[in-house]
Amino acid sequence: MKKTTLLIMAAGLGSRFGGGIKQLEPVGVNDEIIMDYSIHDAIQAGFNKIVFIIRNDIEKDFRDRIGDRVESVCSQLNIEVAYCFQKLDAVPAGMELPVQRTKPWGTGQAVLAAKALINEPFAVINADDYYGKESFKKMHDWLVMDHEDTAIAMAGFILKNTLSDNGGVTRGICQISDGHTHITDVIETSNIVKNATGVESDGKRLDPDSYVSMNFWGFPANRGNKPVYLNILEQGFTEFFQTAVPDNPLKAEFLLPIHIGELLRNGKCTVKVLETREHWFGVTYKQDKPVVVNNFRNLIHSGVYSEDLYSDLRMK
Asked: Is residue 260 within 8 Å of residue 266, measured between CB atoms?
């Protein structure tokens, strides 16, 4: 079976969640966290390597809360597990860390933290988002096929299926080709909320049926080589330090959707839309948690998952 990696970004600070480490909040009937369900769905879809991106200061809590459990499950299934760390001072060669900067540099830098560990096709997800089984199956099936080095895939969620009832969210809203198969641009849009007639961002109406990025991306690697995108991303991080950081040294962020959008506009990549009608949910806000807990109970009740989450994988 072709090696495929799931890269999980779990280094976020969770500031909107109201303190604590939101990625580690229990939501399942046996105190599983959202990541458990993503890992289960990825393994079921055929992924055979898991890489966690975390921060040094949460390593103990992370291993206690999920890491040790996942390693135990994966060891029974011959699935590799690895860790890497997103660090504030991991800046491009020759660049200086801005004085008073306190937070790392965003999702683009997070993926770069794993560069040395990835030598196969890989997908990247957020730790605190539920994506659904269909999304992982479609992504895995795309990754195991041959593609051009500059091809990228994105799980295309429908905007109205990705909103919170408790406040604004940020989404990468996608412009789509005439054939509805590829993205032509990704516009990072913040403060997206429901209103009486649909969806808006800062008073501007949005199409609720738009495709959006939920940071579920796939990158190929041909003939056992390191994915080309990792080198492109590294070059982009250097350019980000040269152009964006001087203007906003304390808050500038190097984000995957923005970087991929720039590549698209310059004709340097293609992005295939893997449409999913799954309903996203996550714990962006503290008030989201009861809804997420109830959603997982409903999925168990309907037979999508068992109460003993990983039991079906162990039986294979």
From this structure: no
Range list of β-strands (E), the chain: 5-9, 49-54, 80-85, 122-126, 129-130, 151-158, 169-176, 182-194, 199-201, 204-206, 211-219, 270-275, 281-282
**pLDDT tens column, 159-208:** 999 988 888 988 889 988 877 789 988 888 999 999 888 999 999 999 99
Written as six digits, the tokens of 164 are 């919170």
Q: How far is CA 86 from CA 20, 26, 104, 106, 113, in A?
A: 18, 23, 7, 9, 6
Residue 122 makes CB contacts below 8 A (sequence gap 6+) with 4, 5, 6, 7, 51, 143, 218, 219, 221, 227
**Ordered alpha helix ranges (H), the chain:** 34-45, 59-62, 68-76, 107-112, 133-143, 228-243, 256-265, 289-301, 311-314
Single-letter amino acid, residue 309: L
CA count, 13 A, side-chain hemisphere, 31: 5
What's the pTM value of the predicted model, to 2 decimals?
A: 0.92
Nearest Cα to Cα of residue 255 among 109, 92, 97? 109
Residue 64 to residues 53, 308, 310, Cα–Cα distance (Å): 16, 19, 18
SS3 284: coil
Tokens of 20: 């604590």
Q: Give the whole-angstrom CA distance, residue 205 versus residue 142.
A: 33
Longest dimension (CA), the chain: 55
Neighbours of 102 (CB within 10 A): 8
- The residue among 197, 186, 190, 194 whose CA lies nearest residue 165 is 194
Residue 247 near residue 265 (C-beta atoms within 8 A): no
> Would you place residue 11 in the very low, low, confident or very high pLDDT band (cuts 50, 70, 90)?
confident
